[in-house]
Every structure is written in C-alpha cells, then in structure tokens.
Amino acid sequence: MSTDTKPDPQSDENIGGRTRWVGAALLVLTASFILVKTGRDALYFQGRGLFDLPYAYFGITIASVPMAMGTLELMRRLGPRTARLVLPMLAAVALLIYVPFASEGGGVVNTLFFVLVPTVWGVLFSLSWLLAADLFEGRSRVVVAASYARLGASSLLGGVLGAAIARAMSGSIEPKSFVLFGAAGLVLASSIMAAAQGSFLAPTISGKEIRPEARQEPKIGLADYKATLTGPYSSILLAIAWAAALTGVFVEFQFYLAAATSGSDGQTNAGFFANFYLALNGGALFVQLVIMPRLQRWVGVHGSLLALPLVLLGGAVALIFVGGSAGIRSGIRVAEGGIKSSIHRANWEQAYLPLGQARRSTAKIIIDGMGARFGEALAAVLLLVWLRVWVGQNPIVGIDITWVSWTLGLAALTWIFLTRRLGRRLVEQAAADDADAEAFRVAIPLPDT
Fold first, then answer.
1. Nearest CA-CA partner of 134 in 296, 6, 19
2. What backbone torsions phi and psi does residue 210 show, to the nearest 5 degrees?
3. What number does CATH give the domain 12-209+218-440?
C-alpha cells in the first residue's frame, strides 16, 4: 500500500497558490489601467474635448473588431498562454510611443489614444480572467466561486493602489507621465502571469495534468463564431453585453460632462479623476468584501447579476423625477463603477463557466471584446447627433439632458429583462443534464465567500 501523501493537484486544497498568482497579476494590471485612465481623462476633457467623445466611442467599436480577431488569431498561432504574455508587452510599447505626442483636449492623436486604452485593457483583462478559468478547471463550484471573489477583490485593490499613486503625484507631475507608470505596470503584470503559468500544472478537459507548454490549444474557426452568435446561452450573454455597454456609456457621459464643464486645468483634472477612481475602487472593495458574499449566498450568481442594472434603473428614476444635479450624476457613476468592479465583474466571469473550456475563450473574446462595443456604438450615434445638431456651437454648461436619463432607464430595463432570461436558461440547462446540473446551475445560492 502506498504511503505517498503528496497533495492531489486536482484537489480543492491546491487552489490557493493559483489564486494568489492570478490575483497579483490582476492587481498590477488594474493599477496600471487606473493610472493610464487618470492621465488620459485629465488631458482629454479640456476645451471642447467632450465634443470628440462620440468619435472616441465609434473608434472603440471599430477597433474592437480587429483587436478581438487579432487576439483570437494570436491565440490560435501562439496559444492563449503565450498571447497572454505578448500582448501586455506590445501595449506597453504603444504607451511609450504615445507619450511624446500627448497634448490637452481632443484631436486625432488623443482620440486614438482614448480608443486604445479600453480596447487593449478589455482584451488584457479577458485573458487574465481566462488564466484563472484554466487554472481552476476541474475544481468544485463552491471553491471556484470563493476564488473568483478573492480575484475580484485583488483587482479592486489594484484600482485603489493605482488611484492612490495618481492622487499622491497629481500635483507634481504632468498627466501624461501617468502613462509611463502604466507601461511599467504592464511589463510587471506580464512577468507575474509568466511565473504563474510556469509554476502550475493546468488540467485538461480529460482531467490529466500536463505542463502548460505541452498543452494542445484548440484552434478557432468560423464555426466558433457562429456558435457564439447563435447559441441559446451565449447569444443571451451577447445581448446582455450590448445592453450593459449602452447603459454604461450614458452613465459615463454624464460624469464626463461634469468634468468637461468645470473649467479646471490638466493637473487639477488629474487630481479630480484620481479622487474619483480612489472613491470608486475603495467603495467597490468594501462592497466586494462585505456585501457581495452575503448577496451571493442569498440570491446566487444569477441574482447578483441583477444588482447593477437595478441600481442604475433607480439612478435613472432619480435623475428624471428628482433632478440631474452634478452630485446625483457623480453618485450614479461611482455606484455604477463600484458595483461593476465588485459584484458584477466576479459574477459575470462565472456566467461564462457553463460554456465549457473548449468554447469559453472564443465566446469571451467575442462578447466582451467585440460584441459589447456595438452597444457603445449605438450610444455614440445618439450622443453625436445631440452634440452636433442640437447643441452645436451653443455653450454646453447648464443644458438640459433629460433625454439621457430616459434612455438610461430604458437600457437598464432591457438589461434586467435579459438577465432574467439568462437565469431561466440556466435552470433549463441544469434540468436537461442531471449529471452536470451542479456545474451548470450558476443560479444556485453559494456559501459565504
């Protein structure tokens, strides 16, 4: 009889180290994101930069398609593991190239950079969360849910760290210098992910452990795109992403409107955005650690996905019937960003788990990296028509934007309806496959994480 007591790498007890490494990568990646966003926003919303914002949203939509397809092709040729390391390094080079050309206001260069930041980081975050999904494959749902909650907290802690650094340095350096710090963070995040992938054995679908470099990654073809766009489960995810993106643009626009009409210079704006991101990520971290475990235990993952659209619906109602003061608009933006980064993000990542490992990477890149951008494009069309036709050369300070509040409310209602459909689909899928019911029933209540 063997006396070997070496822990089984497939056991739930072996998941802690993997969680810590992925959490460290997400912490650094989010900190770099907040630093770059602080510098970008402080520069962009000077003068009439707000009038170029719809073009930036269009650019994000257009750029998301080649970015997603290019990422998928890179994953096909190099494998997701290598792509996960190469892309942050390429992004760091792009940031360094931008810095000498950075200036205040809108314009072509700054608008292109505005487009680059969410497009690139959207892919980088997707690949980082997919690293967690790969390393957690085969573990129990309860343990995976707890690990995802810790990863969400790590990402939020990175947001707090990045905002705190930006706040401390906003009075002494130019906004474009934050971009340099972001580039350094990308290099560090890539190094951490390389260490994580080299340190752990990743389970295959069959359950056998092999070294990451020996793993055969699935090729991505036209059938994968079709399955994502037409599948009964993934198509609902795609529709939710559209509604969420549309809602997010209108929330964000109202916040940027307040910043653009404040009359502050670049360094003052850097301090303003740093304070905002510090409050947003600090509040989100509190929600993640204190509220989310109880909410997830009470209503499960699917129920938790309703938290963000319900809050935004309430915010839209407040804007319509109470008034659209700067304080209310800023509060809605803080609530939207905080809940999205805490409750929503961790549960949204778990909503991809029922797709299975073979289709998960493709679906996530298509939905998060490309599909959601079309919701932003629709919002950009509405904003562009309003700014160019209705506002024109008139001063934007004090202008009535009630229509934005109504649109925000309708988008939030659509989002809630689609999320309810997602919950029904999960229950039906679980009932249709009793053998895998526990793996597919994401709507079940989970224990305190």
1. 19
2. -140, 160
3. 1.20.1250.20
Cα dihedral 154→159→162→163 (10° resolution)? -140
3-state secondary structure of 209: strand
Residues 6 or more apart in contact with residue 135 via CB below 8 angstroms: 15, 18, 22, 196, 200, 202
* Model confidence band, residue 210 (pLDDT cutoffs 50, 70, 90): very low
- Helix crossing, 372-385 with 234-260: angle to 10°? 40
Q: Is the dihedral of CA 274, 277, 281, 287 positive or negative?
A: positive
Token pair belonging to 55:
């073009």
- Token pair, residue 68, equals 């997603």
Contacts by 435-438 with C-beta closer than 8 Å and gap 24+? Answer: 438/141
Q: Report in angstroms the alpha-carbon separations of 43 from 40, 63, 136, 174, 373.
A: 5, 21, 40, 9, 23
198 burial (CB, 10 Å; 0-12 / 13-18 / 19+) is: exposed
Instruction: List the chain domain ranges.
Output: 12-209+218-440
What pLDDT is attached to residue 229? Answer: 66
- Distances from the Cα of 293 to the Cαs of 287, 296, 297, in angstroms? 9, 5, 6
Q: How far apart are CA 186 and CA 183, in angstroms?
A: 5
Instruction: Kindly provide the b/e burial profile for residues 258-297, where b requires at least 16 CB atoms within 10 angstroms of the residue's own CB.
Output: bbbbeebebeebbbbbbebbbbbbbbbbebbbeebbebbe
Task: List helix spans (H) across 200-287.
Answer: 222-230, 234-260, 266-286
User: In this predicted model, which residue has the larger pLDDT, 431 or 169?
Assistant: 169
* pLDDT tens digits along 254-296: 888 877 776 566 677 788 888 888 888 888 888 777 777 777 6
pLDDT tens digit sequence for 160-182: 999 999 999 888 888 889 999 99
**How far apart, in whole angstroms, are the C-alpha atoms of residue 271 and residue 276?**
9
Question: Percent of the chain having pLDDT more than 90?
Answer: 19
Which one-letter DSSP state was computed for residue 391? I
Q: For the whole model, what pTM was predicted?
A: 0.73
